[in-house]
Fold this protein.
Amino acid sequence: QVRLVESGGGLVQAGGSLRLSCQTSGIILSVFRGNSMDWYRQAPGKQRELVATIESSGATNYKDSVKGRFAISRDNSRRRLYLEMNALEPDDTGLYYCAHRSYRDYWGQGTQVTVSS
């Protein structure tokens, strides 16, 4: 059973930082390390959007609005994904989800990030 568990969200003031974690289970190592992983977020009343991607090579891509502020990383041995979030803005508010490209239909509960002005 594939499971994704996000954590690390919270309420922060604008300019603050958070580090999100995604702990996975049920994914064998060769599959986990062999494909991309992503962070998505969904603001109230809006569509879920892709925030950051990390390839199996370690190459990263970011939504334009978070470039220079967020950093995605992965720990394959621990089957874990991270998102370091700095200089947070109110528009970063949302429910953040992790995903693995080999399991696109599997989602965790998400972790809430709320950024106050």
In short: The beta strands are 3-7, 10-13, 18-25, 37-42, 49-54, 60-62, 70-75, 80-85, 94-100, 111-116.
